[in-house]
Amino acid sequence: MISETFKAMLSGKSVIRELSEQAARMANADPAHPVEIFDYSLGNPSVPAPAVVNEKMIDLLRNEDPMLVHGYSPSLGIPSVKEKLAASLNRRFGMNYKGTDIFPTSGAAGALAHAFRLVTKPGDTILTFAPYFPEYGPYVIPTGCQFKTVPADTKNFQINFDALEEALTPDVMALLINTPNNPSGAMYSEETLRQLAEFLLLREKEFGHEIWLISDEPYREIVFDGKKAPYVSSFYARTLSCYSFSKSLSLPGERIGYLAVNPACGCSDMLVQMCGQISRGIGHNCPSSLMQLTVADTCDLTSDLSVYETNMNLLYDALTDLGLEIVRPGGTFYMMPKCPEADSNAFSRKALKYNLVLVPCDTFALPGYFRIAYCTDTEKVIRSLDAFRRFIKTEY
Amino acid sequence: MISETFKAMLSGKSVIRELSEQAARMANADPAHPVEIFDYSLGNPSVPAPAVVNEKMIDLLRNEDPMLVHGYSPSLGIPSVKEKLAASLNRRFGMNYKGTDIFPTSGAAGALAHAFRLVTKPGDTILTFAPYFPEYGPYVIPTGCQFKTVPADTKNFQINFDALEEALTPDVMALLINTPNNPSGAMYSEETLRQLAEFLLLREKEFGHEIWLISDEPYREIVFDGKKAPYVSSFYARTLSCYSFSKSLSLPGERIGYLAVNPACGCSDMLVQMCGQISRGIGHNCPSSLMQLTVADTCDLTSDLSVYETNMNLLYDALTDLGLEIVRPGGTFYMMPKCPEADSNAFSRKALKYNLVLVPCDTFALPGYFRIAYCTDTEKVIRSLDAFRRFIKTEY
Question: CB-CB: which of B6, B48, B119 is closest to A3?
Answer without folding.
Answer: B119
